[in-house]
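pasting LysR family transcriptional regulator for the record, 300 residues
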Amino acid sequence: MDIDPDRLDWTHLRSFLATAETASLSAAARKLGLTQPTLSRQVAALETSLSILLFERVGRGLELTDAGRELLTHVQDMGAAASRLALTAAAQRSDISGKVRITASDIYSTIFVPQMIVEVRKRAPGLIIEVVATNDISDLMRREADIAIRHMRPEEPDLVARLVREVTGRFYAATSYLDKRGRPKTREDLAQHDWVSFGDTNRMVDYMVAMGIPVMHDGFKVGSENGLVAWEMACAGLGICPMDDAVGALSNGMEVVLEGELDVTFPIWLVTHREVHTSPRIRLVFDILAQCIGATKAGR
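structre below
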């Protein structure tokens, strides 16, 4: 049976997209603000109109069929186009003006946020953007910032968060350091090396020990609360330092330590206060940042 593309219902396609992304009818219904029976009917209607099965139930979850996976790629493109259209339309509104304060870590504020602001200014020239470079989520609670980019989901009930993407990180050291101290072949070798800390050293030690890295507090010979300063120390040959791969790829003279064995994955969350999330200008910037971060390619 031929399918008339003009008769495809975007409402049904959107329900399929949300269900595919959450692998759950209930979660997809919450995401779209629908009841579960309504969403189920919309997905079933799409399957009927296409004459294909999109999902199979596996345990308590849903799994895409081969046909569903093939369709998903195209529907994701449609969803991205719809999002761009909505953002462009919102940016043209005359009342989208005022100041929006974005907070992110010092590294993220320096390397990634400026290009995102270029996109914000392009779409909403009436806005004034201020960047607060800090690792403290409490700046949102004190209303010192409107939107935060963080690697941990906040626990405060007054904050709302969206998981935008997951990125990879590895451990790096300068070629000059490794030429002098030797390149570790095993995790046990890492105990003999110097380390650069940024942030809370105790937390870094606990995290690394949990990864099977036998590092002690006295292994951290230098460090800084400022991530950029700590990274520059590592680039200067003062020790090994963990870093986002996108940053590592931009730095000349840095090598991955134990490549393929110490890779880590961590999330990027966009966070805002529950009350200001309904502000048109903050919602617009929030959505543009989500789109920019989601489109950022990893440095690997």
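The chain has two domains: 5-91, 96-300.
Residues 112 and 209 are 30 Å apart (CA to CA).
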